[in-house]
């Protein structure tokens, strides 16, 4: 999960930078994915370097993904609305939000799967043998 956090973070940084440039640097809000990306990268690096903190750090990254999804979900819905004949008021912003939402959804799904798999694995320090 830490590697995935770092990868998602780098993609979000690129998304934010590209969005900012594509909109002619008109608004700093285009950099929001980059700010999320910086935190994802930091959490990924911390999770890789500090084994004892990995679980806590990945829970924080999952919370960050949930917050990112909450903030970008409207853009995803706007882009999906285009499929039914709607129009976008600010296409660059909507597409950037949609990509961010998809990245967050992917991270959330991968995180939940990872947590479920971790719970299924027996822990050696909690199992006791009779005898």
Number of helices: 4
Total beta-strand segments: 0
Biggest β-sheet description = none
The unreliable regions are: 125-131
User: Order of SSEs, N→C?
Assistant: HHHH
Roughly what percent helix?
over 70%
Structural class: mainly alpha
Give the SSE layout.
Elements: H1 2-22, H2 32-49, H3 54-82, H4 91-120
Helix pairs in contact: 1-2, 1-4, 2-3, 3-4
Task: Characterize the structure shown.
- By secondary structure, the protein is an all-alpha fold.
- 75% of the residues lie in helices and 0% in strands.
- It contains 4 helices and no strands.
- The protein has helices at residues 2-22, 32-49, 54-82, 91-120.
- The longest helix is centred in the C-terminal third of the chain and has 30 residues, at 91-120.
- 32% of the residues are buried.
- Mean pLDDT is 86; it is low at 125-131.
Index terms:
mainly alpha, 131 residues, flat, 75% helix, disordered C terminus
In short:
With 131 residues, the protein is mainly α. The protein contains 4 helices and no strands.
């Amino acid at each position: 999960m830490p590697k995935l956090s770092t990868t998602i973070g780098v993609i979000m940084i690129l998304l934010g930078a590209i969005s900012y440039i594509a909109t002619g640097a008109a608004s700093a809000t285009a950099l929001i994915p980059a700010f999320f990306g910086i935190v994802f990268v930091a959490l990924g690096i911390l999770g890789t370097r500090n084994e004892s903190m990995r679980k806590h750090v990945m829970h924080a990254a999952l919370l960050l993904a949930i917050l990112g999804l909450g903030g970008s979900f409207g853009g995803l819905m706007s882009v999906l609305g285009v499929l039914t004949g709607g129009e976008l008021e600010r296409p660059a912003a909507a597409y950037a939000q949609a990509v961010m939402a998809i990245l967050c959804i992917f991270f959330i799904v991968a995180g939940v799967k990872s947590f479920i798999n971790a719970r299924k694995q027996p822990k050696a320090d909690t199992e006791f043998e009779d005898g």
